[in-house]
């Protein structure tokens, strides 16, 4: 019987990893002990957070609805603590399978962002590995497909044989730093390690109900910004959006990512990009989002110097983080290993589905509390 430790389960990918683990136990008629590390909040215990933030009616995939309550009770054990300060029970044993997802996703380039990323994603993660390094059999560490930094052309799974990195922000730089640290720790302590790197994550495209996500960030944030602006200023006029006209963004559904992370448990490879074979053209992304927001746009290849008031606000806030990605050089991810791992699952077609994926979030105002639940029959 496997003993598993998961961090970051209250996050989008982490919650879906837990859903997949429970479904795996059910579909294979297996048993496991699953420890989830969650920090308490001022008014909420770790266990309550698991119920309130992960196992909500709006988020739970239909495939686990019939049995998840019993499985939660039987197999899932909450450890209350921080990744740099927790006690792993003695009966967890010394053959842990660890999925480490807890991290800060801050794409800003401010000094404050640097300190946050350095502390949460590096210092605290280092402390986490001090706690588990002698008790781990297999580690899947979730990084990002963008830890390679800005690059043109084909991107393979192997990031570590190169020495030249052009990072867009501290988040990317520290993810790479942690990747190298973890592989070193794994080597020194003789456990197997796979670094799993999802690209930009969207709502579900495989499991029902489709399109749902626990967070609507990154490209969704552009729509949220303009939806709010349009509401208060219906006559805001044309907005100039800067992008690489030939560029694209690799957007991958969260359920596809979770399945890839679980299957990474059984491979020897140290690096795995969880990406789709094809990017979605950046033009298509921006046009779909702003058309839904009812905003007239002009696509430009340079950030405007004579910005309108709304453009100034956009480029100072959301744009300051995302423009580096909308103007990225043309690239594609090889995605060969992940397709071998998930060969039995049809690769989602994000280009064909993107409008539906975005429109769903837009229609619920980026808040799962607005999802209309089907009545129990």
UniProtKB/TrEMBL annotation:
Classification via Gene3D superfamilies: NAD(P)-binding Rossmann-like Domain (3.40.50.720)
Domain annotation Thioester reductase (TE): ranges: 6-261
Name of the featured protein: NAD-dependent epimerase/dehydratase family protein
InterPro entries per the UniProt record, alphabetical: FAR_NAD-bd, Lipid_A_modif_metabolic_enz, NAD(P)-bd_dom_sf
Top-level taxon: Bacteria
Pfam family, one: NAD_binding_4
Organism listed in the record: Aquimarina algiphila
């Amino acid at each position: 019987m496997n003993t598993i430790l998961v961090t970051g389960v209250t996050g989008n990918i982490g919650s879906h990893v837990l859903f997949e683990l429970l479904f795996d136990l059910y579909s294979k008629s297996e048993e496991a002990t699953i420890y989830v590390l969650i920090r308490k909040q001022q008014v909420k215990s770790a266990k309550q957070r698991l119920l309130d933030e992960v196992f909500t009616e709006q988020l739970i995939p239909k495939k686990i609805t019939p049995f998840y309550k019993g499985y939660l009770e039987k197999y899932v054990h909450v450890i209350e603590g921080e990744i740099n300060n927790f006690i792993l029970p003695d009966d967890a044993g010394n053959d842990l399978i660890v999925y480490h997802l807890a991290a800060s996703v801050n794409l800003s380039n401010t000094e404050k962002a640097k300190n946050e990323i350095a502390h949460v994603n590096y210092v605290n993660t280092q402390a986490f590995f001090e706690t588990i390094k002698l008790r781990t059999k297999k580690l899947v560490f979730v990084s990002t497909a963008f830890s390679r930094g800005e690059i043109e052309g084909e991107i393979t799974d192997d990031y570590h044989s190169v020495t030249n990195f052009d990072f867009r922000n501290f988040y990317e730089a520290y993810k790479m730093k942690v990747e190298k640290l973890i592989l070193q720790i794994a080597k020194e302590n003789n456990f197997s390690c796979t670094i799993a790197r999802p690209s930009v994550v969207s709502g579900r495209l495989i499991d029902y109900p489709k399109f749902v996500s626990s967070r609507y960030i990154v490209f969704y944030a552009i729509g949220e910004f303009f939806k709010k602006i349009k509401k208060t200023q219906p006559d805001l006029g044309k907005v100039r959006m800067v992008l690489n006209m030939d560029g694209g963004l690799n957007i991958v559904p969260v359920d596809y990512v979770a399945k890839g992370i679980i299957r990474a448990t059984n491979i020897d490879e140290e690096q795995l990009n969880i990406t789709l074979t094809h990017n979605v053209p950046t033009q298509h992304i921006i046009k779909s989002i702003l058309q839904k927001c009812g905003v007239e746009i002009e696509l430009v290849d340079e950030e405007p110097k004579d910005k309108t008031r709304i453009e100034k606000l956009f480029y100072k806030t959301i744009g300051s983080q995302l423009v580096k990605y909308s103007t990225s050089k043309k690239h594609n991810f090889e995605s060969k290993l992940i397709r071998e791992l998930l060969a039995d699952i049809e690769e989602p077609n994000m280009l064909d589905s993107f409008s539906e994926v975005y429109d769903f979030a837009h229609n619920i105002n980026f808040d799962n509390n607005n999802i209309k639940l089907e009545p129990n029959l």
